[in-house]
Design a protein that fits this description.
single chain, alpha/beta, Rossmann fold, 5-stranded parallel sheet, 5 strands
Amino acid sequence: MVFNFRLLFQMYFKSIFVYHKTGGRFTFKRIFFILTFPVWYSFLEIVNWTCLFLDEIFFPGYHQVAVLNPVFVVGFPRSGTTYLHRLLDNDYEQFTSLKLWEILFAPSILQKKFFRILGKIDRMIGKPLYRAAVKIEEKMFEGSRKMHKISHFEAEEDEIILIHIFSSLFLTFMFPFNEMDQFSRFDTHVDLKRRRKIMGFYKKCVQRHLYVFGPHKHFLSKNPASSCKINAVYETFPDAKIVCMVRHPFEAIPSAISWVSYGFNQFNTADPFVLTERILSLMSHWYTYPLSELDKRPEYSQAIEIYDDLVKHPGDFIKKLYLRFGFNISITLNNFLVAETEKAKKYKSRHGYSLAQYGLSPEKIIADFEPIFSRFGFLK
């Protein structure tokens, strides 16, 4: 069974009886989540799994879709992975990514086709459904959009799709227990048999997406969480190309803590320093592990790149990647990259984060991430 019922029941049980040991408090927000989770999650998964089952009857051909030269963008959170993903995702001729609406509500081919037909009808009558969805999003994602542009109609981290088998690191936001930490060290801490089941489900989701949105295209994924899945990705997709983004720890770490804390705070109430310690314990592995594993792979299948190179010269950055991986640069893409490079010259970040606000010192970060500082010369 690919769905991890055992872990689901274990996490729900612990949410009721041992939640206090996480450092979280039973506030109204947490109690409301505990009471409503079985209702909305059960409904969501009954619908999704019914449709996934029907795919096997009506669309068995998706199994024959080849996932050729997929590209995976990984790296410590807030290291330019989203920006790189969206630059690549604008190459509509070659790449395709899972949108958030697909990830949450349409993992099956049947659901994708239903929503595409619904969208077509909506456009014919003036987009009332789309406009209503956008207004709902503005309220729902108001807080998160200050740090990360999120929309049901935008490409998003497809690690989220694994919530449908209760095997996603994103579930750690809802269930902050040690048993979930295995997903932050996927290659080394998830049992081999379980790992293969999870990646097998993920591959089928990718094949379903390509079946509907272009079997001839290259699948494009962006997941900081995949930083701990380097070997699992290559085992599942042997011709995969992985790009790992690296940013100065003084910049990436406080920004990542801010973003991930926001996710935790949607379902939990805990002391900020308790959250900081937990977040770092989950993600520190993502700085060093992908580098050590990618260094073992040939150049044509991987690239380790610096954040500053991307944000200062996005056009040259993308062209270098395409040359390395053997992708073609169309006239349309080249024009887009020229425009993006001009934008980059004028861009100034509106966010300011410091280590001190999370109780961290430069000396501690340098000591904890010394290999990163040495390799990339961040102390110069």
